[in-house]
Amino acid sequence: MTKLTMLCKTGGNIKRSRLELSYLLMAELVKTTLCFGGKVQKWKHKSSVLGDDECNEMVFSTYLPPGASADAKVPVIYWLSGLTCTDENFITKAAAQRMAAELGVALVCPDTSPRGCNIEGEDENWDFGTGAGFYVNATADKWKKNYNMFSYVTEELPSIVAKMEEIDASNCSIMGHSMGGHGSLICSLKNPGKYKSTSAFSPICNPVNCPWGKKAFGGYLGDNEEEWKQWDATELARNASEDSWKAPLNILIDQGTADNFLSDKQLLPENFQEACNSKSFIQAEVRMQEGYDHSYYFIQTFINDHLQFHAKYLKQ
């Protein structure tokens, strides 16, 4: 197996810290499959921010387009998946590789939570715990050591990706679906300038006001609902300050009108759109797609639009 290693030292000693990335990060290449002239690859590694040896190794999938090399680095788009998903859902279902190959962009798809942490209750519900990390950093005692998917997605994983010689990790965008759409929005809004563009399919836009969000935030963050707002895209957009943004935040959202979770008031894109409308530096387009649901058939239909949207900013 190929090993990808990053070693950070301070005073000659390796430091291990949950909140810092001064840690021996190693990713092992599990398998490679050719696709449209590029490579679909699966990786595994230990994670310091998700509890190190207490949980199973983390996995993530990547797609490298043809021609990517140390001498011809390509930009990268992170994909965050939704509830119950793994790193493989997007790679196997979204039909994104053909367009990614044509555009010359890499794709990186992490898992949706740590797994096998032996926390009581982590496997009892499909919408909380395993497969449902909600891309927050937990503060509740029971979860705070392991459920730190925000730090994983925005810090630790990019540090690993930066060691892949074919990828220009500094030139990145982010997108996601449902819970992952929520994740992509908050990752951008909480990190001004980190991502060139952001997009989402059927995102959970206002979790402090929907059943999924209330359950997840109450579990991971505790009872302080003011703290919840720090992880809510609508609240972050509403309270964003232009002083923090050197360039506009460009966002594309597609939402199907036949999505049952839309009618169940789990997604609330109208609240996010309203919050963005008052901010000139947030350029958000929310497209309501007639008759489409919440499935990967919906994602397949419009994934090329999203990849082209990101490429426009990544290739500038």
Task: Please describe the topology of this protein.
Layout: E1 3-6, E2 25-35, E3 38-45, E4 58-64, E5 74-80, H1 88-93, H2 97-103, E6 106-110, H3 149-161, E7 167-177, H4 179-189, E8 198-201, H5 211-221, H6 225-228, H7 233-239, E9 249-256, H8 260-263, H9 269-277, E10 282-289, H10 296-314
Parallel strand pairs: 5-6, 5-7, 7-8, 8-9, 9-10
Antiparallel strand pairs: 1-2, 2-3, 3-4, 4-6
Helix pairs in contact: 7-9
- Cα-atom radius of gyration: 18 Å
Helix content: 25-40%
- Alpha-carbon distance between the termini? 36 Å
Would you identify the regions where 5 or more consecutive residues have pLDDT less than 50?
5-24
Strand order of the largest sheet: 1-2-3-4-6-5-7-8-9-10
The ordered H/E elements are: EEEEEHHEHEHEHHHEHHEH
Residue-averaged pLDDT: 92
Instruction: Count helical runs.
Output: 10
Alpha-beta classification: alpha/beta
The largest sheet, given as strand count, sense and whether it forms a barrel, is: 10 strands, mixed
Number of β-strand runs: 10
Rough outline: globular
Range of strand content: 15-25%
Relevant terms:
single chain, about 325 residues, alpha/beta, 10-stranded mixed beta sheet, about 30% helix, about 25% strand, globular
Question: How is this structure best described in words?
Answer:
It is a single chain. It is globular, with a radius of gyration of 18 Å. With about 325 residues, it is an alpha/beta fold. Helix 7 packs parallel to helix 9. The protein has 10 helices and 10 strands. Residues about 5-25 have low confidence and may be disordered. A hairpin with a 2-residue loop joins strand 2 and strand 3 (about 40-45). Strands 1-2-3-4-6-5-7-8-9-10 form a 10-stranded mixed beta sheet, sandwiched between helices. Helix content is about 30%, strand content about 25%. It has helices at about 90-95, 95-105, 150-160, 180-190, 210-220, 225-230, 235-240, 260-265, 270-275, 295-315; strands spanning about 5, 25-35, 40-45, 60-65, 75-80, 105-110, 165-175, 200, 250-255, 280-290.
